[in-house]
Amino acid sequence: MTTEPSNGELGRLIGSLQDALNARFGELNQRLDKMVGQDVYTIQNTHVEQRLAQLQADIQRCASEVDRLEDDFEAYQRDEAKRREAERQARLYQLIVPVAICIISSVIAIWAVVAK
User: What mean pLDDT, rounded, does the chain reach?
Assistant: First the structure.
């Protein structure tokens, strides 16, 4: 008996090997179909970089806007404090002047009576 495979067996083995090889190539093609092409990747990467640059510019603009608003608010607070101080002084003077005139008038009246 010979241990050599017959031509029919060799044909079947080659056929099954071809089927297995075709199945593996089919799997490989399916995997490659899921991959992104270099041109698509480059376009997407460029878009992401542009979007990041735009977002960074927006963040910088918002930060400068916040700084400006904080400065404006501090200026408003200073102006409001000055206004309140001026109003407080005006009310104080509105109270002191009539009282002082009343006291001076009373002193003059008393002096006039005493001087006679």
Answer: 90
